[in-house]
Amino acid sequence: MDIKKQSKAARDSIQQGIYCIINPFVRLLIRMGVTPNMVTTIGFLGNVAAAVILVYEGYRHGSAPDFGMVTLAGALIIGFSLFDMLDGQVARLGNMVSPFGAMYDSVLDRYCELFNLGGIAYYLIQTGHLAGALITFLALVGSLMVSYVRARAEGLDIECKVGFMQRPERVVVTAAAILGTGITGMSLAADSQFDPNVILVIAMAVIAVFANLTAVARLEHCRKKMM
Fold this sequence. Notes:
The protein is mainly α. The protein has helices spanning 3-31, 36-61, 67-81, 83-93, 99-126, 130-155, 167-187, 197-226. Helix 3 (67-81) packs antiparallel against helix 7, helix 4 (83-93) packs antiparallel against helix 5 and helix 7 (167-187) runs antiparallel to helix 8.
């Protein structure tokens, strides 16, 4: 079994384990009359709230943000990104799968990334990290192109899920970086010379590099399939 197959098997195993945990809650939502699109919308609003917190902290406090609020933003992204798994399970277990629901989910996923990375870019500008904001812009470009190449490929009946930095990985890196920045900032002494926002900049650089490499890898994958 090659590395790609091992990675897919590991991801599928983790996903099934998560489903076993969340399925009782999913069935409760279905009994309450909650629809997949409602779950998707709630997850989107939570991610927007996280972005608003980052923008507000950058705007209000500038180079001295409240790292407790930054930690909250990271926690919100983690918590409400779980709704991305919940909506699919609600659709499947509740027999509410629809083409529009799939499209609605994908569109709001893109909006979530735009708001989150846009919020991070603004926050970094306000905290004195212009280079970090530009790196975040490159991360945003890569994130959008990963999705765009896949969408174009599927429009040509080509399955295109190759690459390391897909959306789940990007969400994990982003949320972990924001949490790490906030927690580190809260734990540092007042006279510390270390800037916790460096953690966020490094994470954005990781996404910028690997998301764009993933987009290129998908483009190459499609080229080979079309030959």
